[in-house]
Amino acid sequence: MASAAVTGGGAGHARYTFRVRVSASALRALGAEWARCRWLWNESVARSKKAYAEGEQIGPAALDRMLTEARRVTPWLGEGSSVPQQQVIRDFGKSRTKALKDIRARVPAARRTGMPRWKTKRQARPSLNYTRRNFRLKNGRLHLAGGIVVRVVWSRDLPAEPSSVRIHQEASGSWCASFVVPAPVEPLPATGRVIGIDWGVRETATTTSDAHDLPHPGHGRMAAQKLARYQRMMARRKPKRGQSASAGYQAAKARTAKLHAKVARQRRDTARKWAKHVVTDHDQLAVEDFRPKFLAKTTMARKAADAAIGAAKAALVEMARKHGRTVHLVHPAHTTMDCAKCGARTKHALPLSERMYACTACGAVSPRDKNSARVMLVRAGLNPADAEGGSPGGTLFRRAA
Predict the structure, then answer these.
(1) pLDDT tens track for 12-30
(2) Do β-strands 284-288 and 194-199 pair in parallel, antiparallel, or remain unpaired?
(3) What percent of the chain has pLDDT over 70?
(4) Which DSSP string do the residues of 78-119 spell out, in sequence order?
């Protein structure tokens, strides 16, 4: 099957997310802004439902006109910045349009985007979007419309002037600022090497080069014991239906969310360092276009989730784009059944317990995942001979730029 090539070098945008320190006054101001935006979202949901019941057509333009009128007659709403409120209307319009598109396309209910729902005060986390004219950076601080000032924890420099910023609160309770900036391209020297990459569960990534394989990190497994303890704390303190959650329940919930966030950061860090290593040493990458979502319904769901195949694949594609490398996305069908040497296909799919591939046509024998990685190169139209040879020196997890 043909592969789709993603060539680095095109202009794009990237998100840079930083922790922010929020003072008591800024916290009150952000809470007030979010209350207005949440009210607007819920009003949009109610107005959309009413329009559907009455057979009326309503879109983002009509909701924008309603927002203008609401800000004129409602002083509480008019006190807030208009930009995050307008962004709420746009986000609602996009969400509703996607849901209606899935309905018209008869997408199965299990995979269909649901219609926009109410945002409750206790469950919906604050998220405010500001465009360039409504924020500025001065002396390391982020100044937002309405006189809101927060201190950004600058863990790295921004490569360019940001065009927008999103202030949001994570499940752990910490606040973050996510800046959208133009993504620059930083070309790396040519190496003349190519690499094939096959995704798996025993090893997250198996490549045609032993030095570039990505072993299963097991970050979730190492945090499982502590996570189970926090979840038991939540279960013991879970409030009854209709009752408010206790302080102990909220504390256990925050600990659980904080641990989940830590594991997610570890997975992203591992994926980025591995991707930088692969991209630095190879000009072209033949990557299995694998969709790991179906593994969630199998007995390998927990281990597959801990492998974080999706995060590793996203990091690899983004790192290749950043450094001007070419990624060939190869369709995964029959990649474990084909012989990389002669192209013959086995008559039956190999069981997962069978880890060696033996071709009945040419007699080639090799590890199953290594054979699949070489199949990626063949399907991408690359010469597997370019994948041979030693790898440049250096540790596997060098610093990711």
Answers:
(1) 788 899 999 999 999 999 9
(2) parallel
(3) 92
(4) HTS-HHHHHHHHHHHHHHHHHHHHHHHTT--GGGSPPPP---
Collapsing DSSP states into helix, strand and coil, what is residue 282?
A: coil
Who has greater pLDDT, 397 or 256?
A: 256
d(CA 278, CA 210): 11
Amino acid at 60: P
Upper half-sphere CA count for residue 143 (Cβ side, 13 Å): 7
Mean pLDDT of 101-113: 85
pLDDT band at 398 (very low <50, low <70, confident <90, very high): very low
Number of Cβ atoms within 10 Å of the Cβ of 376: 29
Alpha-carbon Rg for the chain, nearest whole angstrom, is 25
d(CA 57, CA 269): 46
Q: How far apart are CA 48 and CA 209, in angstroms?
A: 55
Predicted pLDDT of residue 4:
57
How far is it, in rounded angstroms, from Cα 301 to Cα 341?
Answer: 32
Beta strands 326-330 and 356-358, pairing class: unpaired
Provide CB contacts within 8 A for 239, sequence distance 6+. Answer: 245, 246, 249
Q: Which residue, among 261, 274, 277, has the nearest Cα to 312 in the 3D structure?
A: 274
The helices-and-strands tally (H runs, E runs) of the chain is 9, 15
Strand extents, DSSP E, 134-173 = 135-138, 141-144, 148-152, 164-169
